Amino acid sequence: MRYAHLLIAAACAATPLAAQGAAAQSASMPESYRAVQMRMLKLQRSLLLAMADSMPASLYRDKVTPVQRDFAQQIHHAASAVAGITARYMGTPMPSLPDTAVAFGSRAGLTGFINSAFDYAEGVLKAQTAASREEVVNFFGQMEIPRWQVWDEVHQHTLWTAGQIVANFRKHDMAPPGFGFF
User: Fold this and answer.
1) Residue among 68, 99, 91 nearest 171 (CA)
2) Which parts of 92-178 are beta strand (E)?
3) Which of 98, 89, 104 is nearest to 57 (CA)?
4) For residues 145 and 129, what is the distance between their CA atoms, to the nearest angstrom?
5) How many beta carbons lie within 10 A of that of residue 179, not counting itself?
6) Which pTM does this prediction carry?
7) Quick one: how far is CA 13 from the chain centroid?
8) Distance CA 81, CA 75 (A)
9) Domains in the chain, CATH or no CATH each
10) What is the pLDDT of residues 40-82, one digit of tens each?
């Protein structure tokens, strides 16, 4: 009986959330929100750079578990997703980013990769027109969202991925870099 009550409660709670999602997709976002999204990109960049700077380069290729990406691959994944999602959903050409052999080979290579990806994304956000921000795209075949919302999805992905990287620091009894709010 308790299980049935939980299912009913979940179904009731999901209905307003689904309606909110549909309403948010059709809502116009104030132009001032672009500045918030730019601060989010700068926060993401600074967090990934702090992680790359805090981890000894000798541990860049270390994994917490055999099946996961190593530290450098995780940082690369977070930064390359910023550039890749931006290019795909903002309709801009994919930038030429440093090769993984360079990015994974040294601190300078990894931080250079991070900076290249974020320089590109910040430039696209800055140049994005108000009309482009309101255009709707099919996001990974999952949902229709306005382009302005793609930036929020990028932010969520980057922070989620960065959160996984914390385990690399913990494995070596190291504190991860401090989190800074934007």
Assistant:
1) 68
2) 136-139, 143-146
3) 104
4) 16
5) 12
6) 0.83
7) 27
8) 10
9) 30-171 (1.20.120.450)
10) 999 999 999 999 999 999 999 999 999 999 999 999 999 999 9
Q: Could you tell me which of 61, 81, 151, 71 has the C-alpha nearest to residue 97?
A: 81
Tokens of 131: 């009309």
Q: What is the token pair recorded at 74?
A: 């995780």
Query: Which class for 150: exposed (0-12), middle (13-18), buried (19 or more C-beta within 10 A)?
Result: buried
- Model pLDDT, residue 12: 41
What residues contact residue 24 under an 8 Å CB cut-off, 6+ apart? 149
Q: Length of the chain, please?
A: 182
Helix (H, G, I), strand (E, B) or coil at 79: helix
Six-digit token string for 97: 């980013």
Taking the alpha carbons at both ends of the chain, their separation in whole angstroms is 45
Contact between 50 and 41 (Cβ < 8 Å): no
